[in-house]
From TrEMBL:
Domain ABC transmembrane type-1: 69-281
Any Gene Ontology CC annotation: plasma membrane
Gene3D superfamilies: MetI-like
Membrane topology of the entry: Multi-pass membrane protein
Keywords: Cell membrane, Membrane, Transmembrane, Transmembrane helix, Transport
Transmembrane domains' residue ranges: 9-31, 74-95, 107-126, 164-183, 204-225, 260-281
PROSITE patterns: ABC_TM1
Name of the protein: Sugar ABC transporter permease
Length: 294
């Protein structure tokens, strides 16, 4: 047995299946997209026409492309500026619950395992202009009904709120696991020294969970860049393209308009933008969050 473990071919046999899957379902599709991004292709013809960087020049000069990219930016800002602080707050509150902690964890995690289609339909009823919950509440204060999903002023915010509701619980479980892994001795020692609950949270808990918060932010950035399903279900990019994100804009070109070459160009740019954003975050912020051991 020991001789077998020292044989490099044994390790290769274990690595090979995963490596083959990685190449087939990750490397090959990326290389394929890069190739077709330099072509004019309708997705049907056998011989795509090579056109060089024309698709990329078109994309960088496309106003709708940048409007869609801006909506991805709103996803990132909403996730990092509003959602992440709420995730940390709710995690701290649940961690200090004495009874039914399991019930609270299940309740907040439940939306994350629901289908996006179900969530989109559910929130569609909540946003409904005439009988929706939000407008019913506003009506109690004499406020006229708001067309949440068909008014350009509110449609993007409505999608951001729905998306946050779906994924907040998933990240709460991650942060909560980090909080519960902190030894109780540290908290008890600070309590003996006279620190109140808020001081213990700010001085002990938050510094110790910085690495997991950093992971949550990075996952939020990556998730915001590939957001598509919730937009398709709720507005299909409308009204008038005001809620289109890069992924839905890509789908419209590649599938609806049969411009697969340009669609692949947008897909490649989404990949590049995501790499740049996550790399910048890692270099500028994430590396400052030192690994905590206790």
């Amino acid at each position: 047995m020991n001789k077998s473990l020292k044989n490099p071919w044994v390790y290769s046999m274990f690595i090979l299946p995963a490596l083959i899957l990685f190449i087939l379902f990750f490397i090959y599709p990326i290389l394929n997209s890069i190739y077709y991004s330099f072509t004019s292709w309708n997705g049907v013809s056998e011989n795509p026409k090579f056109i060089g960087f024309e698709n990329y020049i078109k994309a960088f000069g496309d106003e709708r492309f940048w409007e869609s990219a801006l909506n991805n930016g709103w996803f990132i800002l909403f996730s990092c500026g509003i959602q992440v602080p709420l995730i940390v707050l709710f995690s701290l509150l649940i961690a200090n619950v004495k009874r039914l902690k399991g019930l609270y964890k299940t309740a907040v995690f439940l939306p994350s395992i629901m289908s996006t289609a179900v969530i989109g339909i559910l929130w569609g009823f909540i946003y409904e202009p005439n009988i929706g919950l939000f407008n019913q509440i506003l009506g109690l204060f004499g406020i006229e009904p708001i067309y949440w999903l068909s008014d350009e002023k509110y449609a993007m915010f409505s999608i951001l709120l729905t998306n946050a509701w779906q994924w907040t619980g998933f990240y709460i479980i991650m942060v909560l696991a980090a909080i519960l892994a902190i030894p109780r001795d540290l908290d008890e020692a600070a309590e003996i020294d006279g620190a109140n609950r808020l001081q213990r949270a700010l001085s002990i808990t938050l510094p110790l969970i910085k690495p997991i918060i950093s992971v949550v932010i990075m996952l939020s950035i990556a998730g915001a860049m590939k957001a598509a399903d919730i937009v398709i279900v709720m507005t299909k990019g409308g009204p008038a393209g005001s809620t289109d994100v890069l992924a839905t804009y890509m789908i419209k070109y590649a599938i609806t308009n049969f411009k697969y070459g340009y669609g692949n160009t947008i897909a490649v740019l989404i990949f590049v933008f995501t790499l740049i954003l996550t790399a910048l975050y890692q270099v500028m912020i994430a590396r400052r969050s030192e690994r905590i051991e206790y």
